[in-house]
Automatic annotation (TrEMBL):
Localization (cell): Cell membrane
InterPro entries: AAA+_ATPase (IPR003593), FtsK/SpoIIIE/SftA (IPR050206), FtsK_4TM (IPR025199), FtsK_alpha (IPR041027), FtsK_dom (IPR002543), Ftsk_gamma (IPR018541), P-loop_NTPase (IPR027417), WH-like_DNA-bd_sf (IPR036388)
Leader sequence segment: none
GO CC annotation, single: plasma membrane
Name under which the protein is recorded: DNA translocase FtsK
Gene3D superfamilies assigned: 3.30.980.40, P-loop containing nucleotide triphosphate hydrolases, Winged helix-like DNA-binding domain superfamily/Winged helix DNA-binding domain
Key word Membrane present: yes
Gene Ontology biological process: cell division; chromosome segregation
Highest taxon in the source lineage: Bacteria
Alphabetical list of Pfam families matching this protein: FtsK_4TM, FtsK_alpha, FtsK_gamma, FtsK_SpoIIIE
Keywords per UniProt: ATP-binding, Cell cycle, Cell division, Cell membrane, Chromosome partition, DNA-binding, Membrane, Nucleotide-binding, Transmembrane, Transmembrane helix
Amino acid sequence: MASYQARQRDPLFDQDTQAVLERRGKELVGGLLVLLGVLASMMLFSYHPEDPSWMAASDEPVQNWLGRIGAGIASPLFVIVGHGAWLLPAALVIWGARMITHRGEERLAGRIIFFPIAVAVAAVYAALLVPGDQWGQAFGLGGHFGDMIAGTLLGIVPVSGTVGLKLLSLVLAVAMLAIGGFVLGFTKPELRAITRFMWLGTVAAYVGVTNLLGKGASASVLGAKAAADRARQRRVEAAERAAELAAWEEQQAMAAGWAPEMEPAPSARPSLLSRIRRPIEPEYDAYDPTPELFEIEPDWSEQSAPSEDRIRARIAQAVQSRKAAPIAPDYAPDEPQLVAFDAPESFATPEAEAPRAPASVLAAVAKRLARAPRQPQVLHNEPPLRAQPQLRAEPPLHAKPRYMPQASAPAPESAPLPEAYVSEFEGIEEPHLTAAQQIALESQNDDGWDWTHPEYQGFDGFEDDPLEMHTDHFYAGEPDSFDETGAAQWVEEDTVPEIPAAARGLDRQVIKQSSEAKRVVQPAKKPIAPSRRAMEEAQPALAFDAPKAAPYEPPPLSLLTNPMTIQRHQLSDEALEENARMLETVLDDYGVKGEIVSVRPGPVVTMYELEPAPGLKASRVIGLADDIARSMSALSARVSTVPGRSVIGIELPNDHREKVVLREILSARDFGDTNMKLPLALGKTIGGEPIVTNLAKMPHLLIAGTTGSGKSVAINTMILSLLYRLTPEECRLIMIDPKMLELSVYDGIPHLLSPVVTDPKKAVVALKWVVSEMEERYRKMSKMGVRNIEGYNGRVKESLAKGEMFKRTVQTGFYEETGEPIFETEEFQPKPFPYIVVIVDEMADLMMVAGKEIEACIQRLAQMARASGIHLIMATQRPSVDVITGTIKANFPTRISFQVTSKIDSRTILGEQGAEQLLGMGDMLYMAGGGKITRCHGPFVSDEEVEEIVNHLKSFGPPEYMSGVVDGPDDDVVSDIDAVLGLNTGGNTNGEDALYDQAVAIVIKDRKCSTSYIQRKLGIGYNKAARLVEQMEDEGIVSAANHVGKREILVPEQ
């Protein structure tokens, strides 16, 4: 048979085209991987522990950027491996970039299989890191897997905990980098290239920064040199001018043949602002110095400085006038004469020219202002000034432009002055004062200054300076010499606050403030922000505005005690510092080394934060609580760790306890404007901040405390919080009060579903009704396809807004011919579900009566009632293990403990000690769902306030009770509830037990019937056997017991 060779088909594309398509395909896959990596980064970055996922049920809106899908993926990743999950987006992005750039994509298959190992190592390394304050999870940064492996490794390492932790962290960091680099496809050449690039980048950055700093330093040096040269040139010029002036004066004096002498001359009293600072002149021995003067320099911005020629010309004119009239007239003793000396006529200038400040004056002013410390600018309403021809004799004025007192005292007689000192300026007219300014000026005196004013807080004493001007009193100008010229030009921009004359006698000291940081941290005294309702009630209502009748109105806040009437107590910083030092001494006596780093006073207690020495166990300090209280002479002391910080908090009570009232919390914005469904006002923290929690998120609350600790008052405040916030259509209450004392006052308010239950047996019936209501709500919500009460009420509101009706199918009978049921569909108007809060004031009394049924009902409600809008608040004054069983504790994550009698009770309710050291009367420890314990002080509500609020609520009509709450559901529903709660072990109908048939068979066969006999045969308890015997008696199988306790078998022998 001949064989034929099959012809092979040519490929669709040639090799080059295939290579191009393959490269484009890899690039496309790489782009998809990069996109997935970016999405994964967004998913992990926006992870929030309260997002709903398959591991956590929550009613909160999804905060993850990728929605529910992102939350559902991010939650298990963070819970299992923690921050090790960040390797996922890193691997996706890097391998995607490799496939796009075609660099090492062939290593993908051989390296990516080790990705789980890299994630595990990264999780273990992250578990060894200390989480920050924002990490609110119960596990570490490495998730549950990282915590488990890290704990195992730390137990294996044969060294101490600290050394082992650091060593293991170092080893795992190196391993994580090595395995991570291998998994991400890096090779040695690539690592060397990356290292070289980073090194070059660092060197380039260093060089750039150095160049910038060098240029800045060079510019600064050049600027400093130029400034020094200018200052040197100014000093040389000033010295030359002074020397020339001195030589000229000496020459003129010798030529004229006269010597300076003092003669009296009349002189007006110049104002303070007319004292112009002079240039530095040669010192003379023939004058009497006066005390220093501090004044504000006038503004010369609008006038040019006069030249020295003009000054000399004026001096020459004064000398010539003296020669023309050599005989001085008689003057009054209190009017000193102004005398001038001669000058050449060539320096004469016209008289009409306005005076100008010399350039040296301006230079001296600028130099002194540059040296003086800057102070806040204070503008004074000074009177206007005007120039007038006038000569005035003064000493050389070397003013210090720092402070300027106001003229307040009359001027004394002028001291004799040498002739050489003549004013360079023709007089400046006195300021013009208004009537009000004149009265204010006359009313001031030297001793009337308020040194606590903020203007004088920066005064640090007078400084010694050779350029100070001395005078003892200041001149007050005459009122008739004033005019209405503006004075703004005389107010200097750099003017500093004035110092009054009373400061002239102060010693020249510099007050130094202590640089030591204070340990006392006073709480912020910010007023609590009021809510909108509180502000509305605070507004006065007009008399003619008649209030509109409303079907329901919440009680007004005015029925509660006003917080303004509460007396506030506050310790001084010095006392707190002294207490801190004393506490450090006490701790040192007990061998506790550490430092009190912060003191936080509060309304009831003060917390001292102790930073312990390295190696000190917190349990050792916690065990010294009683000894610390005794040594500090305190009523009690509580020591505990501060969550999220490395310090230990020591809480000591204040000498004066501040009263906390409910109105202060209810009127706060945290309560009035909150979006919480069931807000509860718990009280204030240690620092005095209000605490408002949401019962809908708890979802149930367990309260424990001894008699008199404030437990019942706290329950009243929680009830009033709900009554102030919610209407009867939004929240209904079921109150169970076996003590018949605390909650009976609320009987008759419209929020109740039934009268206050005081009989323990009816309390069991009420709890079973709540269970049946919960089951009914779940059935309705499942038919509507919603998950919780909020979704159901939202659907109902939408239907009512649209005018839609709900439909249901009901059975109306049977067909006579076939016997099949007849169903009909009817429409009905839906109603939203109100929240139901069950409040039990004393659980121990209920547990004594029907412990098994009560525990079964509470367990069922605590497990399932949250989504249906049913919440429990249970209180007990006996927090023992037979009342607060393990089942109840497991289903009540949120608990509050008031003062208890022993550490055992504290561990029973909170899991740790500390509640036995509380102060009582509302002092409590609040444990949220995450296990974080916060100390707070509950508000006080008196019985009178409760009665007024109840009377206000009763005025809106009687409540609408539901009969089934106290009477109980139907018998078939009761049997179903008992079966759900596990109270019927066999689940048989008509009251029969699973063991009943066996007991009947034994009785008929053996012809014996007694409780002990059935107990031995079936191996059950006495109560169960007695109940079976009573059931057989009811069924007519056995007779009643005779006088000796025997029973006859009524069923014939088979």
